[in-house]
């Protein structure tokens, strides 16, 4: 397995970073995940644009140009002969003597690697997955794809222990998003998802699903929805780079709709798979 660390492609076992890395000490960094299907990156341009925006938000100069990032991703896909899975990229502020404030001259640490994943032929997509709800205890800038993910670690561990594929995070009765995904519900012919704000990560898959739905004249409603509405929905699904469109068939043990992946959800998944090639 070959990984990328600070400009070099090295065997995984030889890769290392400093114990003073601010990503390690302060979660002072951001990350990005792009899907790979049939050896090709999916929706990658938008992922790279979000990486760039997130770096600006936390005052780190993007160490690479768009073209250089693409080259790193493609090189990793090639060297690891990755057919299906994802490329994970992380940029932290870099290593320096431990101090909360930072010197702008610190050189960022860049790490990237591939992971094999079943995205297209994921058995959970056929049956649909269970979800649980948890309180959203995260910070106020969830639009930044920060590596500070402890609240999501709690949420997703609780999901796993409940045999669920995702935890829906809830704030003031409203669903914000999934632990690592965007949440959607369907009521009648309306596909409902929360509008973008600092309360959620602007999902790349979310945006593409909305575009594909629009092209087919399906109705998307961007508005807040409650957990109660999700329980009562006809269909529910989550989206992310590593799951695409994943049907949710129960929440907190309550069956959603028919308890099987619904027709609109299946259609959106098919449209997304077609786009991903
Ligand atoms: N997570 N919301 C959160 C909190 C996420 O972590 C993610 C993605 C999404 C979906 O974004 P996108 O469609 O751009 O993948 C929404 C990635 C996959 C992860 O953390 O591994």
TrEMBL record:
The keyword Transferase applies. It catalyses: L-valine + 2-oxoglutarate = 3-methyl-2-oxobutanoate + L-glutamate; L-leucine + 2-oxoglutarate = 4-methyl-2-oxopentanoate + L-glutamate; L-isoleucine + 2-oxoglutarate = (S)-3-methyl-2-oxopentanoate + L-glutamate. One of its GO terms (molecular function) is D-alanine-2-oxoglutarate aminotransferase activity. Keywords: Amino-acid biosynthesis, Aminotransferase, Branched-chain amino acid biosynthesis, Transferase. It comes from the Bacteria. Pathway: Amino-acid biosynthesis; L-isoleucine biosynthesis; L-isoleucine from 2-oxobutanoate: step 4/4; Amino-acid biosynthesis; L-leucine biosynthesis; L-leucine from 3-methyl-2-oxobutanoate: step 4/4; Amino-acid biosynthesis; L-valine biosynthesis; L-valine from pyruvate: step 4/4. InterPro entries: Aminotrans_IV, Aminotransferase-like, BCAT-like_C, BCAT-like_N, Class-IV_PLP-Dep_Aminotrnsfr. Gene3D superfamilies: 3.30.470.10, D-amino Acid Aminotransferase, subunit A, domain 2. NCBIfam families: PRK06680.1. Belongs to the class-IV pyridoxal-phosphate-dependent aminotransferase family. This is Probable branched-chain-amino-acid aminotransferase. It comes from Hohaiivirga grylli.
């Amino acid at each position: 397995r070959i990984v990328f660390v600070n400009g070099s492609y090295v065997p995984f076992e030889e890769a290392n970073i400093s114990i003073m890395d601010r990503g390690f000490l302060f979660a002072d960094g951001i990350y990005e995940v792009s899907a790979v299907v049939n050896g090709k990156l999916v929706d990658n341009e938008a992922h790279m644009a979000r990486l760039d925006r997130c770096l600006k938000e936390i005052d780190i100069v993007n160490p690479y140009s768009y073209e250089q990032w693409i080259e790193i991703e493609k090189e990793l896909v090639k060297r690891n002969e990755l057919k299906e899975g994802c490329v994970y990229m992380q940029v932290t502020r870099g290593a320096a003597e431990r101090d909360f404030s930072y010197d702008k001259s610190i050189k960022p640490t860049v790490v990237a690697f591939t992971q094999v994943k079943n995205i297209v032929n994921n058995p959970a997509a056929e049956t649909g997955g269970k979800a649980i709800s948890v309180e959203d205890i995260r910070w106020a800038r969830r639009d930044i794809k920060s590596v500070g993910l402890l609240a999501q670690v709690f949420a997703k561990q609780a999901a796993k222990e409940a045999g669920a594929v995702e935890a829906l995070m809830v704030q003031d009765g409203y669903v914000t998003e999934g632990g690592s995904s965007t949440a959607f519900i369907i009521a009648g012919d309306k596909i409902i998802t929360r509008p973008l704000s600092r309360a959620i990560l602007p999902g790349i898959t979310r945006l593409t699903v909305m575009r594909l739905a629009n092209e087919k004249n399906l109705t998307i409603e961007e508005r807040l929805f409650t957990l109660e509405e999700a329980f009562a929905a006809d269909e529910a699904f989550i989206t992310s780079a590593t799951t695409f469109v994943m049907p949710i068939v129960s929440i907190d043990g309550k069956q959603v709709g028919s308890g099987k992946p619904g027709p609109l959800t299946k259609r959106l998944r098919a449209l997304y798979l077609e786009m991903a090639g």
